[in-house]
Amino acid sequence: MPESKFKSHLAPWFDRFLMEKRACGFAYVVQENRLRHFDRLLVSEGLTREELPKRLVELWTAKRPNEKSTNQQARAQVIHQFALFLSRQGVPAYIPNTRQISGNRSQFLPFIFTRKDVGMLLRAVDQIPYQYRSPLRHRTMPEIFRLLYGCGLRRNEPLALTVADVDLDQGILRIRQSKDKDRLVPMALSLKGRLQRYAESFGSRSDDAVFFPGPDGQRIGGYCVYRMFRMLLTAVGIQHRGRGQGPRLHDMRATFAVHRLETWYLQGADLRVKLPVLSTYMGHRNLFETQRYLRLTAELFPDIASRLEKSYGHIIPRIGETHEF
């Protein structure tokens, strides 16, 4: 093991903490720098035992002159995570309450549909009638909504697909330049079969043709899908709570993630291994985006919440927390 960059009595614990975070897929570069500054504070304040006292934590997390609340929050969050780690190892540690210094950060929570809700929405979209002004709507919308939920796609990702992007032999979607990167998204066999039948109904098409065309053969607008979503909510009796309150169309994607994590957990899978897989599948920019769904999963399913917290509490962020990567 290389010589530690830390000098305080907590140096071995800093090293182990960083090893654990990086084993879970975090880069933790910025956070390591903050920890090294905190380590110097511990040395200068004369820490003589393996403990994390309240006085030193509060000294470190106190707001500095002319400091933005976001910077203060970032400093507090990394110490919050480190304190939780120490506590799990039996080392006395004061755990700061990061919610008290969370500033004005948005606390919006996604609306997670139940599986019964999803079933009702899909049955409703299957029943939309033919409309002469939009003669393909009753064929495209059922498949689009199944991709939004079944593959956790963002709203515009299925709309941007071309014929060449949909490999119906392998059952793989190629998502291009979404959040500045491409990714491959495998489909369930049932969804692959539906898209094969859908594609066959169009006959031969060029590779650059839009896979889900609008009335003019061009790409369907995102607002058309959102308007359909609102119609489906009304049809199945799910109340929309107003602008900014949801349910949002993007919540279909969040629902996919939560349902997938719940299924994996109940199957006995190691979520520390599965999280990077889900993160890559969904095209997240970093692992923290995916970890937030663990919090939702724990809160929505009380029967497994305590077990999730016990096994994975160190990688479940609190609502409102953010990290830099």
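the 2nd protein, sequnce then structure:
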Amino acid sequence: MPFELIFAIEHASRVCDWQENLVSEECPPAWMWAFDEELEIWFEQVDQARKAKYNLSDNDDTTVPMMSNELARGRR
């Protein structure tokens, strides 16, 4: 199989993944799909927008204590 075909299939899979898993505002515009450098900048901006929207910080290491589970207690 030629490498060009493999790269085309991989790229199409990536674009389909974006369209299925991202909200429309986070999906990059079609002109940008072929430019890796532009995509890196795009997704950095998407990440920053998500952090601002949900009040997350880069070092948000909050941990939640484990809950007790009566059913699992006997299996330990």
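Residues 3-53 form one domain. Helices lie at 3-21, 36-53, 70-73.
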